[in-house]
């Protein structure tokens, strides 16, 4: 068999068509586990082997770096090791390639700097100092979101690329402008810039666009459902010369709509390119029929989708299992025991198991059980719970209070910053060595010595001494809270703006409360630290590859495992309460797709687990996910005791939530209203997706978000009677100008932004993009960016 035949081997008719249909615009709608990645890889190899095209003329865009690496690895096996596979890359990776070659067109050096989030925060820290800002006023997270939001429009490019100046009194805008200035001075580009700069260069330098268009004879896009409009516009532009564009994706697996993914690109591809061909791949090779039916059954509840039932010829396999625990300890333990049982009875290895969750903090109870049961595991794309910085910081304070050990001392003496730097630590260490004592004792006993007598050091010792004396008077959960607040750790993490860190600390407190309520005898600090040492001093010297893998559902995208446990299948976690609050109905559909992605990762068995207790993020009792109630009983078997009362309470909670979400807006932009506390105000924006108004109040001059369901708001029918109306704000402004997040209600010119770009009539003949093409592109880009 020759190489080409081998590339066609073992493909079903649809896959074969996808591989060999190399010319023109082709769309593949492929369900989970239907061999998308396989088809994409074979197709790439086919273009190289059967058509003789050089790999440097094929662009293959993947969604993540990991997917690009995996694809390169597979292609290498098919086409040999000597090919240049650097055009198998992400959107960002490709933009970097363009910029490294052509950024001089906008007078930037080719060795420009790419900033990651940490770099962005470093710049912000500097800006905060210059503007005398504190994170109490604005968190980094707010600013970073604002920056990203601003960069979804093209306007900011005028300030850095066209030297336009801007004055403002608005605090967050001031930060943004300073941030841009620093970026420009250092020729530093953040992730949002990469795509914007590349588009800017193409649109202003048609010779450059043409060069890239001619270079890229074939373009393939993976996970197209998660591409944003701007990303796809780049691809569309590049494909205009050779017109060979192959897109593949699954609208049911769109999980990035919250950050701008437009599944419509894939769904409406045939309208945008009327001559395009569509191939549907709906045979699943991965999962058992039980798992697949569960997936089909859940995703059918989504209203916005293309209906496509997946089928499989795989053998029946085992039942899907739902486990309900009385608390998260029981949930974790059950998962650990089930893994142990399967490894012992079925000859499976630990690496056959994946544990997936919606939110990082869910991993805590699972990790504790795995450690207790001696099951090796690793956290994919993340850090083990007890190794996370914020958890180590809190525990180090507790350990220092109990043991006065040097490790804990070094970790927290300057966290948060007390101005006790390297030199100070060296001085303390010298004393400790001389006196043959611990660092903490050396400091405490010599505070009056000149080289260590600092205000921060005195405060630190006072704090530790205070809690050394008071520790028996506190239960540990309260001790943690008191230390977090007094040491400044709470403020420090809040200023970081990373809610994940605060959630993790809350989860730690949650676990302590659970421990305290379970035991009759209150545990003391020493006992707690001994218990916790089991989880923190992990001996990870075992076989590195044979481990259970823990990861978020987002990270699991594109992967497959024989056994999958979806843990923390709890209302408020999956679906995420935060997402629902932000994007209501749209969020529910995306959360359901996340559940679908989790289910369809499984090959042999799928488990969903949740437990009772307290949900600290919503401040309510924990109930099973609403998605569990959407599944008919015959799709799974139940384990654990889920009482009728819990089911009733959960359903009642859902009913209340649904009623809340159905509440429609009562006021329009411009309406004058009366608030029961703040009196008169003017509605200056309405965000229907979020269910809230932005109201500017007359007396305070402040703008506040008020929910649709709030009853203490009435309309003032005759605004002329409203005193001081002129102070109620200028012209109405769009919600998009205030909101940091996707609002969903901001009218976007969907129709126009998706209309096809002008096509050349003679393929490959008239190659130069015409001036009106440029105008058209600009106007579309402006609409898109407006
Ligand atoms: N024609 C085929 N014959 C046998 N096995 C196949 C075939 N096509 C794909 N597979 C297998 O099916 C599984 C799923 O394939 P792949 O990972 O390419 O799917 P996918 O569509 O990318 O999945 P997802 O979108 O859910 O991540 C893989 O184990 C793959 O080897």
From TrEMBL:
Pfam family, one: UvrD-helicase
Compositional bias annotation for Basic and acidic residues: 717-729, 768-786
Stored Gene3D superfamilies: 1.10.10.160, P-loop containing nucleotide triphosphate hydrolases, PCRA, domain 4
Reactions performed catalytically: ATP + H2O = ADP + phosphate + H(+); Couples ATP hydrolysis with the unwinding of duplex DNA by translocating in the 3'-5' direction
Keyword Disulfide bond: no
EC number: 5.6.2.4
Family the UniProt entry places it in: Belongs to the helicase family. UvrD subfamily.
Name of the protein described by the UniProt record: DNA 3'-5' helicase
Species assigned in the record: Arenibacter antarcticus
Lineage: Bacteria, Pseudomonadati, Bacteroidota, Flavobacteriia, Flavobacteriales
């Amino acid at each position: 068999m020759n190489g080409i035949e081998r590339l066609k081997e073992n493909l079903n008719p649809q896959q074969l068509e996808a591989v060999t249909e190399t010319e023109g615009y082709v769309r593949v709608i492929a369900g989970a586990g239907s061999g998308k990645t396989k088809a994409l890889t074979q197709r790439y190899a086919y273009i190289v082997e059967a058509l003789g095209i050089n790999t440097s003329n094929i662009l293959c865009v993947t969604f993540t770096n990991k997917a690009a690496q995996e694809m390169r690895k597979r292609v290498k096996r098919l086409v040999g090791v000597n090919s240049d596979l650097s055009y198998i890359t992400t959107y960002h990776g490709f933009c970097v390639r363009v910029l490294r070659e052509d950024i001089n067109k906008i007078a930037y050096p080719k060795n420009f700097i790419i900033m990651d989030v940490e770099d962005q925060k470093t710049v912000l820290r500097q800006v905060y100092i210059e503007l005398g800002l504190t994170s109490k006023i604005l968190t980094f997270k707010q600013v970073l979101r604002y920056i990203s939001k601003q960069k979804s429009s093209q306007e900011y490019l005028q300030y850095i690329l066209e030297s336009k100046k801007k004055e403002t009194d608005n605090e967050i805008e001031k930060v943004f402008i300073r941030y841009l200035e620093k970026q420009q001075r250092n020729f530093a580009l953040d992730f949002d810039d990469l795509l914007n700069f590349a588009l800017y260069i193409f649109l202003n330098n048609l010779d450059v666009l043409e060069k890239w268009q001619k270079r890229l004879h074939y373009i393939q896009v993976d996970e197209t459902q998660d591409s944003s409009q701007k990303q796809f516009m780049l691809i569309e532009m590049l494909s205009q010369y050779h017109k060979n564009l192959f897109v593949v994706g699954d609208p049911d697996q769109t999980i990035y709509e919250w950050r701008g993914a437009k599944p419509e690109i894939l769904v409406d591809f045939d309208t945008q390119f009327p001559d395009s061909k569509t191939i549907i791949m709906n045979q699943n090779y991965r999962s058992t029929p039980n798992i697949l039916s569960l997936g089909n059954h859940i995703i059918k509840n989504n209203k916005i989708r293309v209906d496509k039932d997946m089928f499989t010829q795989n053998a029946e396999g085992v039942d899907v299992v739902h486990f309900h625990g009385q608390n998260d300890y029981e949930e974790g333990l059950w998962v650990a025991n089930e893994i142990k049982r399967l490894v012992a009875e079925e000859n499976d290895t630990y690496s056959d198991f994946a544990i997936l969750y919606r939110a990082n903090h869910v991993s805590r109870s699972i990790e504790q059980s795995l450690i207790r049961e001696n099951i090796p595991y690793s956290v994919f794309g993340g850090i083990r719970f007890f190794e996370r910085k914020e958890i180590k910081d809190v525990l180090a304070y507790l350990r220092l209070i109990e043991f006065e050990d040097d490790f804990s001392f070094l970790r927290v003496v300057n966290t948060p910053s007390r101005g006790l730097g390297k030199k100070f630590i060296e001085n303390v260490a010298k004393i400790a060595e001389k006196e043959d004592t611990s660092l903490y004792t050396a400091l405490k006993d010599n505070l009056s010595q000149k080289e260590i007598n600092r205000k921060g050091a005195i405060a630190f010792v006072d704090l530790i001494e205070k809690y050394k004396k008071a520790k028996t008077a506190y239960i540990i959960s309260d001790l943690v809270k008191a230390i977090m607040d007094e040491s400044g750790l709470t403020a420090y993490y809040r200023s970081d703006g990373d809610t994940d860190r605060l959630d993790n600390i809350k989860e730690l407190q949650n676990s302590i409360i659970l421990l305290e309520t379970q035991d009759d005898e209150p545990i003391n600090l020493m006992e707690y630290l001994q218990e916790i040492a089991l989880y923190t001093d992990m001996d990870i010297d075992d076989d590195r590859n044979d481990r259970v893998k823990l990861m978020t559902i987002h990270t699991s995208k594109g992967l497959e495992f024989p056994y999958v446990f979806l843990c923390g299948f709890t209302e408020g976690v999956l679906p995420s309460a935060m997402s629902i609050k932000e994007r209501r109905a749209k969020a529910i559909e995306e959360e359901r797709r996340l559940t679908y992605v989790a289910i369809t990762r499984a090959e042999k068995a799928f488990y969903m687990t949740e437990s009772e207790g307290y949900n600290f993020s919503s401040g309510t009792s924990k109930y099973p996910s609403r998605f569990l109630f959407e599944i008919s009983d015959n799709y799974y078997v139940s384990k654990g005791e889920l009482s009728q009362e819990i089911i009733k309470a959960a359903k009642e909670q859902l009913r209340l939530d649904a009623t809340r979400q159905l509440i429609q807006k009562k006021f329009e932009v411009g309406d004058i209203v009366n608030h029961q506390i703040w009196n008169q105000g003017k509605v200056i924006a309405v965000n229907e997706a979020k269910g809230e108004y932005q109201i500017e109040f007359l007396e305070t001059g402040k703008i506040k978000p008020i929910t649709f369901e709030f009853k203490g708001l009435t309309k003032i029918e005759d605004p002329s009677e409203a005193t001081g109306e002129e102070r109620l704000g200028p012209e109405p402004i769009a919600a998009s100008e205030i909101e940091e997040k996707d609002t969903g209600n901001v009218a976007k010119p969907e129709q126009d932004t998706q209309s096809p770009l002008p096509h050349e009539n003679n393929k490959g003949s008239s190659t130069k993009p015409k001036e009106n093409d440029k105008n058209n592109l600009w106007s579309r880009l402006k609409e898109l960016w407006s």
